[in-house]
Amino acid sequence: MTHEKADIAPAEGLAKSVENPDRAAPHPAALIEAMRSLGYTLEAAVADLVDNSISHGATHVRIQFDWAGRDSTLSISDNGHGMDEPQLIEAMRPGTHNPRADRAPQDLGRFGLGLKTASFSQASRLSVITRAAGHAEAARVWDLPFMAAANDWILLREASEEARRHASWMLGQPSGTTVVWERLDRLVGDALSDNTNAHQAFLEAADRVTKHLSMVFGEFLVGANSVKFEVGNVKLGRWDPFMRDHVATQILPIEELRWGHHSVAVQPYVLPHHSKLTKDEFERAAGAKGWTAHQGFYIYRNNRLISAGGWLSLGLTRDEHLKLARIRIDLGNDLDFDWKLDVRKSVASPPVALRQELRRIARLTRERAQEVYRHRGRQILAVTSHDHSSVWEGRLMRGRTIFRVNREHPVVQALTANDDGGRAVEALLKLVEQTLPLASIYIRHAEAPEQQPAPFDDTKDKQFGEMLSDLYLGVLASGRSHQQAIASLSALSASKKRPHLIAMLDASPPVPKELD
Q1: Predicted local distance difference test score (pLDDT) of residue 89
Q2: Which of 45, 113, 133, 243 can bridge 118 by disulfide, Cβ–Cβ 3.0-4.6 Å?
Q3: Of the candidates 80, 112, 115, 86, which has an alpha carbon nearest to the alpha carbon of residue 99?
């Protein structure tokens, strides 16, 4: 018996499916747990909500951390346009906007998920209280345990008294919105209010958020249309990663890179050497993650910082002597998909068509940054008073020329004078002197002089820098000062070919390890 295949037109098959559909709506509890696991940090989650405030015209944003153990709260209030009740209900819907839909040029959103995913990542109860000009106050609440128990997307209408307390400032404005996170299970858990360790971690989290916001929204904190930010009682000041107001900052030519019908502006900067900075300037310019981590590209989207540092997987590594190189890229929100912007707005990746040009600009900026250290190193070398370029000396003994390590060289002198290891170093030097293969060296050099490398020619900067650091610690251990150690090491002939490493050692010397 044979079965003939039914010949059904696609449109007819679609019609039959619509008439009797199989529904596969997600279970609220399961989907919410997935949304809670998108990888937000607390700082990124708060910044995502601040995006909404700025996109809705806020000129004043207030963030409040209130410690009460497991009942601690975090709120973000603004004086923006606010929402009427239908707008609020729509805003609370997961996936409010189609990510592919066009956005207003200055809109900082994209996926229509930020309010929900950012909030759910930190708290199990989200309350929004808002008022648009000419409209009554409106409130809605997502309570995750309630949703899980009901297994339904049910918005509650009544905010708690605690949430309403947080909204009191906003309700005194002509319009605005307050978002309140209650039951901060991801940040506080079940800690009691008298748990000093948990309280301290809470305060440190508030400090991280403060620094993060001053970095991410730094461009909104200055200028005629600036936005006032407060975290608790602290008014935010801008963190400028490029030190544009410093006279010693090098501002390299801006370039406009084009691909297809799109373009981006790329502006490289080389920051001043630490010798030109005050202690406060140096520490502030280091940023939250430190000088080395913050080198590289800074991607801005509508003046909002997306990523702060890194080399965009262009095959370039972070290096200590390149830490002065920082490059700004400005994007419009019409380029989100070209640059693979993620939901958290914390990661972006350049189009393939731009990678070669970005790599070229990066290498130029890195070279200029390295030159700052070379220049500083040459200054140090110029003031070295004695010639100690070689640790070897030739001597005539009993009619024979022998080569020995110069015990008067300041580096050798410092190491052999060390009570702990001086005798061992002296024994090793004698062994090296007596076993030096002079005949072999002479023959090889005579047969192929062009093949003989200069000292440390085959040693990379990283390894040579590590050697200098080890020698520096050894000289320091002998009782010499930092200046004396730098002077001794800068006199070496190999150091003179790499002045930037001497400058790095002078700027960031290694710290001796304490003995247990």
Answers
A1: 92
A2: 45
A3: 112
| β-sheet bridge partners, residue 157 | none
Q: Could you report the per-residue pLDDT of 474-496, keeping only the tens digit for each?
A: 777 777 788 877 877 777 777 77
The CATH 3.30.565.10 domain(s) of the chain lie at: 28-234
Is 392 or 254 the better-scoring residue by pLDDT?
Answer: 254
Assess whether pLDDT exceeds 60 at residue 252. Answer: yes
Q: Are strands 60-66 and 228-231 parallel, antiparallel or unpaired?
A: parallel
> 């607390």: which residue's tokens?
42
- DSSP reduced 3-state for 60: strand
Burial of 361 (0-12, 13-18, 19+ CB in 10 A): buried
Grouping H, G, I as helix, E, B as strand and the rest as coil, residue 487 is helix
- Per-residue pLDDT reduced to its tens digit, 351-400: 888 899 999 999 999 999 988 877 766 665 555 555 555 676 766 666 66
Distance, in Å, from the CA atom of 407 to the CA atom of 415, rounded to the nearest integer, reads 10
- Nearest alpha carbon to residue 392 among 379, 402, 405: 405
Fold of the CATH domain 250-382: Ribosomal Protein S5; domain 2 (3.30.230)
Q: What is the pLDDT of residues 408-424, one digit of tens each?
A: 776 777 777 665 656 77
pLDDT in tens, 158-209: 999 999 999 999 999 999 999 999 999 989 999 999 999 999 999 999 999 9
At residue 438, the 3 state secondary structure works out as helix
Structure tokens that stand for 207 in this block: 């400090």
> In the chain, where does the domain assigned CATH 3.30.230 lie?
250-382
Contact assessment for residue 206 and residue 72, using Cβ atoms and an 8 Å cutoff: no
Torsion of CA 84, 85, 88, 90, to 10 degrees: -110
Closest CA to 296 of 218, 358, 377: 358
First-to-last alpha carbon distance for the chain, in angstroms, is: 87
Return the closest-CA partner of residue 55 out of 128, 116, 108, 102: 108
- Report percent pLDDT > 90 for the chain: 41
pTM of the model: 0.69
Q: Which residue has the tokens 């004086």?
A: 79
pLDDT of 227: 95
Distance CA 254, CA 271 (A): 16
CB 129 within 8 A of CB 180: yes
pLDDT at 127: 96
Q: Are 70 and 191 in contact (CB under 8 A)?
A: yes
Conformation bin of residue 162: beta by default, left when phi > 0, alpha when psi is -120 to 50: alpha
CA pair distance 356, 370, nearest whole angstrom: 21
In this structure, the number of other CB atoms found within 10 A of the CB of residue 302 comes to 20
Helix (H) or strand (E) holding 300: strand 296-301
Task: Please name the fold of domain 28-234.
Answer: Heat Shock Protein 90 (3.30.565)
Kindly list the distances between the CA atom of residue 379 and the CA atoms of 60, 383, 465, in Å, as whole numbers in the listed order: 48, 7, 18
Structure-block tokens of residue 11: 């449109």
234: alpha, beta or left? (left if phi > 0; alpha if psi -120 to 50):
beta
